[in-house]
Amino acid sequence: MTDSVRRGTRIAHIGIAVRALDELLPFYRDVLGMPDVPLDDADGASIAGLAAGESLVELLEAKSEDTPIGKYVAKRGPGIHHVCFAVDDLDGTLQKCRDAGLRLIDETPRIGAEGKRIAFLHPSATGGVLVELSEY
């Protein structure tokens, strides 16, 4: 990607682990007025997408207890699960992470809930925050 078309890193979405989508959707959709954004389920989670300006909020409900979200909720309870940053060059950013000695969960990108290539960084490398990187 050339410098003239670089967009820069931005918050793509915030993933919030919930016990039950139907308990929290009314708050985000009806009280806050956030419109629905259709998303595919992924990684064993039912996902409800909601628009928050140019970013998304993903509400993540585990389909079973042995999924990443199921394990997260069992251990920590509901709450912010991860922050996703959209980057100009996912492969290049992952290489910069490797070069900096950061621990990766995904060594190579995979397809996420929005149909975009994604990769997660381990929270031990990012100040205790699970960070997802995504292509625009």
Automatic annotation (TrEMBL):
Q: Name one GO molecular function term.
A: methylmalonyl-CoA epimerase activity
Q: Which GO terms describe its biological process?
A: L-methylmalonyl-CoA metabolic process
Arranged from A to Z, the UniProt key words for this protein are: Metal-binding
UniProt protein name? VOC domain-containing protein
Q: Which organism is it from?
A: Gemmatimonas aurantiaca (strain DSM 14586 / JCM 11422 / NBRC 100505 / T-27)
Q: What InterPro entries does this protein map onto?
A: Glyas_Bleomycin-R_OHBP_Dase, MeMalonyl-CoA_epimerase, MMCE/EMCE_epimerase, VOC_core
Q: Which family does it belong to?
A: Belongs to the methylmalonyl-CoA epimerase family.
Q: Which residues form the VOC domain?
A: 10-136
UniProt cross-references to PANTHER family, sorted A to Z = METHYLMALONYL-COA EPIMERASE, METHYLMALONYL-COA EPIMERASE, MITOCHONDRIAL
Stretches assigned to coiled coil: none
Superkingdom is Bacteria
